[in-house]
Amino acid sequence: MIIDMSRELFCILFFVISVIGYIFYKKRNATIQYWIIPVFVIYLLYLLKVTLFPIFIFDQETLEKVKEGVENYLVFYQLKPFASIVNYFREGAMIQLIGNVILLSPLVVFGEIVTRGKWRITRMILLVSSVSLLIELLQLVINYSTGYPYRVADVDDLILNVTGVIITMLVLRAAKKAVSRKEESCLKIRALLYKE
């Protein structure tokens, strides 16, 4: 059996989470523009799809057939720092490297919008890094639960995710300083993001 996020499930989850988000938005009298919530929900659903799905669940007989001849090569986790990163460079898998660096950047942007940039960089890095760690732990749990490691829990993914978070934070803070010098641009961006 393969559990995957189909288009139908994606649409249902998008609708349900967006409605729940709208209810909280109205009750909390949020200061951000509402369009940010559905965009963020789409990002979260894609994040789940890219990091956790599909999940392969085989009965014992099929699992044994799948593992036949490759059992020694199945890896459930990779804990050696920089081993995968070196491998990405060696094999020219730059898309994997860049993808892991930018994977959590939208989460940082959303966090900056919601907090209005008032959180210290270290606090945001800790929060988003915790999300990265949670993803890796979920991948590990799924691997051991199913007996089939489709997604390898990798310490290098964590390193690359955190690197991307730091880069994104620095770029956002530099952009904020640059825009704040231009009052007209600053007002347009505030109107786009916040209800005044």
Strand content: under 5%
Q: Got a strand count?
A: 4
Q: Quick check: average pLDDT?
A: 91
SS-derived structural category: mainly alpha
Helix content: over 70%
Could you name the ranges where pLDDT drops below 50 across 5 or more consecutive residues? none
Give the helices and strands, then pairings.
Blueprint: E1 2-3, H1 7-28, H2 36-52, E2 55-56, H3 60-67, E3 77-78, H4 83-91, H5 94-102, H6 105-114, H7 121-146, E4 153-154, H8 155-180, H9 183-193
Parallel strand pairs: 3-4
Antiparallel strand pairs: 1-2
Helix pairs in contact: 1-2, 5-8, 6-8, 7-8
Brief sketch in words of this structure:
The chain has 196 residues and is mainly alpha-helical. The protein is built from 9 helices and 4 strands, in the order βααβαβααααβαα.
What does this structure look like?
The chain is mainly alpha-helical and 196 residues long. It has helices at 7-28, 36-52, 60-67, 83-91, 94-102, 105-114, 121-146, 155-180, 183-193, and strands spanning 2-3, 55-56, 77-78, 153-154. The protein has one domain (2-193). The longest helix has 26 residues, at 121-146. It starts with a strand and ends with a helix. The model has no long low-confidence stretch (mean pLDDT 91).
Features of this protein?
9 helices, 196 residues, mainly alpha, 70% helix, 4 strands
